[in-house]
Amino acid sequence: MPILDVENLSVSFKQYATGLKQVHHQVISNLSISLEAGEILAVVGASGSGKSLLAHAILGILPSNARTSGTIKYAGEILTSKRQKALRGKEIAIVPQSVNFLDPLMRVGKQVRTSVKSGDAAALQREVFGRFHLKKEVETMYPFQLSGGMARRVLLSTAMVSGAKVIIADEPTPGLDPVVIKEALNNIREFADNGCAVLFITHDIESALKIADKIAVFYAGTTVEIAPVENFKGQGEALRHPYTKALWRALPQNDFIPIPGSQPHPTELPTGCLFAPRCPLATSECQEVLPDMRFLRNGMVRCIHAN
Ligand SMILES: Nc1ncnc2c1ncn2[C@@H]1O[C@H](COP(=O)(O)OP(=O)(O)OP(=O)(O)O)[C@@H](O)[C@H]1O
Ligand code: NI
């Protein structure tokens, strides 16, 4: 049984257009992912593809003008907002994308120690700070006294000491130096190897391939493919979706050919397949309905032409 199971999640935002007219912008559409204990699922996709909103939906911290549908289950049971609140920071921890999530009025050592559920909180906090090369004096500092990189390492420390069974790491590494990035990635892998599950959100396919088991590729608010990491090799022959193949080939070490066009904004989503306007394989059928995710060769794809 998956530890975390997101089924058919859609998220929209209510916004006021001209006058009092309300419009709903769909930012996540029919998204399903699941996460097993011991596994790292990386979520990759362009800016605005819905990665952070997925994280916030799982934790129950979407803004109040968001509407959601679909189900999210944790350990087989539906995550109601009451359960989300009870499990947040305890069973399910986040390494947030923004360092503004730190409490500006609390010394950072204390912030990390309050996340410890059992054992010697101070000892655990010091151990994890040591691992992330944070000196002893950092403990007594306030967030405004930290550099961006230090603040990120404090956020990572908070999740690592929490004893959570699921960690959602939302772009945990930007601004860190390469040694600390390596350390952080190793720590995340170790965390999964100890039986926990990680949803690792990143722009960086390279980092994802280093530690993840599977990669979910997001496009315009939904998954287009979920593939085992081994499929990312060569010319991308083993990959399923035209967007994933194009992303892979666009990497500097591959063909370095950018994908023409751009991801549609939530206010102007096409009907049918969201990638169709940029897709070399698109036919008139693709413009009719959003294809479902389907199994294909040990992975999943949302494309009627994939084979
Ligand atoms: N509070 C909000 N109200 C309206 N639209 C929103 C709100 N928050 C996010 N969005 C929109 O939802 C879409 C997805 O945003 P999200 O933050 O999940 O993207 P992301 O994939 O995490 O991007 P990045 O890689 O830049 O962090 C974007 O188009 C964004 O503009
Ligand atoms: Ni984000």
From TrEMBL:
It is an enzyme of class 7 (translocase). GO terms for molecular function: ABC-type nickel transporter activity; ATP binding; ATP hydrolysis activity. Keywords: ATP-binding, Cell membrane, Ion transport, Membrane, Nickel, Nickel transport, Nucleotide-binding, Translocase, Transport. Residues 4-245 form the ABC transporter domain. GO terms for cellular component: plasma membrane. Belongs to the ABC transporter superfamily. This is Nickel import system ATP-binding protein NikD.
